[in-house]
Design brief:
27% strand; FAD/NAD(P)-binding domain; D-Amino Acid Oxidase, Chain A, domain 2; 18 strands; alpha/beta; 393 residues; 2 domains; eight-stranded mixed sheet; globular; binds flavin-adenine dinucleotide
Length: 393
């Protein structure tokens, strides 16, 4: 006999788990199945993330999404409404510091900061002298201005967020199944069920694609095209004994790298010059990036990085939306009951509380109730109309 579920979610990392949590919170008794092929999450972006949250986006929708995200993350246990043994996600609010070296850069940062403050953020634009006063270990000769968020920005426990969502979703009745979705069945503009690698078939009232870097692969099962591809990021953990600044910000440097403190050390990465789609199974690190690109840049920014030791490095994949580097969220045109949570392009972890809530509202009520995510809908892909997020790290 075919099992029947109200909602089947493909992928059980942070987006799938958040959706399952919100669906069962907003509609107790709803039958929700999450299918996850690798419950270790070893290769999920969620686990390989740099786990940071910011308010400094170029798009007001993304600022609002992150404002909800940081509030949820800060008071996690209370927001979740369950004691699942994760009292806190350890949010460290050191702020983001975006630097610019352009003559016109200051005006751009001022314009963005004004928009972010309208949304409730606290972004300040600093002169090079003010940056030095706050972070005397940075060298700012080439800097014309910096945008700094003194609150609501920093980093937190990514796996705590995922595990909290999973545990709370389970407590509310959602089920997580270890299996791989290998096919989607359709009939008359509806997805009717999913087939699994185990040979099982389950029927579904609605399906959510939360398959991360494999989101496009899931759409191909229906003959649909989603312009989201895996892009490789190699992240380095380094020790810099002459530059231990645990109160340092998450620095986004216009010369081409970002870094943040991590327990007395630093996490540091760059965007590769030849940033192209990779195989979702390709986790070979681009280890040369550190010596060839990152170290000269960071040493120029802060002389304390004269002696550094790479402790370890890892590869994660962005689920990169090639149209506009923004999330694709909502119902997929042409299908009554197929929903997407894809294309987060490197900023999905912090967005997961708002995105899971939004998709649950859309499925349960047919419309967003709390925060309008309509601008992130898939319709823009059909008309090739970008809804750009410029502040991509
Ligand atoms: C290096 C790096 C740094 C990042 N830094 C940040 C940051 O600082 N802040 C931030 O907000 N975001 C950051 N991100 C982005 C963030 O991690 C992702 O946007 C977010 O985790 C996406 O979550 P997801 O659940 O959609 O996808 P994933 O975490 O990739 O999970 C997808 C899941 O779907 C499963 N799956 C796929 N196909 C199938 C199938 N057919 N059947 C069953 N299961 C399937 C996979 O096994 C996987 O567990 C970063 C990402 C990377 C790679």
């Amino acid at each position: 006999m075919t099992e029947s579920w109200d909602v089947v979610i493909v992928g059980g990392a942070v987006m799938g788990a958040s959706s399952a949590y919100w669906l069962t919170r907003l509609s107790p008794g709803l039958r929700v199945l999450v299918v996850e092929m690798d419950p270790t999450y070893a290769r999920s972006a969620t686990a390989l993330s740099v786990a940071s949250v910011r308010q400094q986006f170029s798009n007001p929708v993304n600022v609002a999404v992150s404002r909800f995200g940081v509030a949820f993350i800060r008071d996690f246990q209370q927001a979740l409404g369950h004691d699942v043994g994760i009292a806190s996600l350890g949010l460290k609010e050191n702020g983001y510091l975006f630097l610019t070296g352009d003559a016109s850069g200051r005006a751009r940062l001022e314009r963005l900061a004004a928009m972010q403050r309208d949304e409730g953020a606290a972004t300040e634009v600093l002169t090079p002298e003010q940056i030095t006063a706050r972070f005397p270990w940075l060298s700012v000769e080439d800097v014309t201005a910096g945008a700094f968020g003194p609150r609501d920005e920093g980093w937190f426990d990514n796996m705590g967020l995922l595990n909290g969502f999973r545990a709370a979703a389970r407590a509310q009745g959602a089920e997580f199944l270890k299996d791989r979705v290998t096919g989607l069945e359709k009939q008359a503009g509806r997805v009717t069920g999913v087939t699994l690698a185990s040979g099982r078939r389950v029927s579904a009232g609605a399906v959510i694609n939360a398959a991360g870097t494999r989101g496009a692969e899931v759409m191909r099962m229906l003959g649909e095209h989603l312009p989201v591809e895996p892009r490789k990021r190699t992240v380095f953990l380094i020790d810099a004994p002459n530059a231990r600044h645990p109160d340092g910000p998450l620095l986004i440097d216009h010369t081409g790298f970002y870094m943040r403190p991590e327990h007395g050390q630093w996490i540091i990465a760059t965007v590769p010059n030849d940033d192209a789609a990779v195989d979702p199974e390709d986790f070979t690190p681009d280890a040369d990036q550190f010596d060839e690109i990152i170290w000269p840049l960071v040493y120029a920014r802060a002389p304390g990085f004269d002696a550094v030791k790479v402790q370890r490095y890892w590869v994660g994949h962005y689920d990169y939306n090639t149209l506009d580097q923004n999330a694709v969220v909502g119902r997929w045109p042409g299908f009554e009951n197929l929903y997407l949570l894809n294309g987060f392009s490197g900023h999905g972890l912090q967005q997961s509380p708002a995105m899971g809530r939004g998709i649950a509202e859309l499925i349960l009520h047919g419309a967003y109730q709390s925060l309008d995510l309509g601008a992130l809908g898939a319709e823009r892909l059909m008309t090739n109309t970008p809804f750009l997020e410029e502040a991509i790290v």
